[in-house]
Write a structure and sequence with these properties.
The protein is mainly beta. It is about 15% helix and about 40% strand. An eight-stranded antiparallel β-barrel has the order 1-2-3-4-5-6-7-8.
């Protein structure tokens, strides 16, 4: 009887633990994130039912001439002088409760001046997978793992 109770309790604990790992809410995306190349931080915020992300830190904020980096490859010539730092690069993401991911957004890459369809999947407390693709279905593209940047306390 004790062995059966132990096994039953163990199984219940595993089920509860696993459900907590995968449980998430739309607001889990909110915070400061670093893309895999480590050259920037992106702050993701919620506005109403949508999520947006802007560049808040650059490892190298100046160009070769010592000027603030700007969006020089933007296809819209009027935007080429805007600073990369402070730029909104993630736009219009909506949380899909059933799929447990953020969809219907787009991501802008200032290095290429291109905008891609995008989705974001939560991979745990400190990781998300950001997928940029040429097609809305997400078949042609690439995925990057971003890690949460913890605030340092002094």
């Amino acid at each position: 009887m004790k062995k059966t109770n132990f096994i039953l309790m163990s199984l219940v604990s595993i089920i509860i633990f696993q459900s907590n790992i995968f449980a998430q809410s739309a607001s889990d995306l909110v915070g400061l994130w670093q893309p895999s190349e480590g050259t920037s931080y992106v702050k993701i915020e919620r506005e109403g039912d949508k999520f947006y992300g802007k560049v808040v830190w650059l490892k190298e904020p100046k160009d070769e001439q010592g000027n603030e980096k700007t969006d020089k490859k933007n296809p819209d010539k009027s935007l080429r002088s805007r600073p990369v730092k402070g730029m909104r690069m993630l736009k219009d993401f909506v949380f899909d409760e059933k799929a447990k991911e953020w969809k219907s957004g787009n991501i802008y890459d200032p290095k290429s001046g291109s905008t891609y369809y995008s989705s974001i999947k939560y991979k745990g407390k400190n990781q998300i997978e950001v997928r940029g693709s040429l097609d809305q279905s997400g078949y042609i593209g690439r995925t990057d793992t971003w890690v949460r940047v913890e605030k340092k306390t002094k």
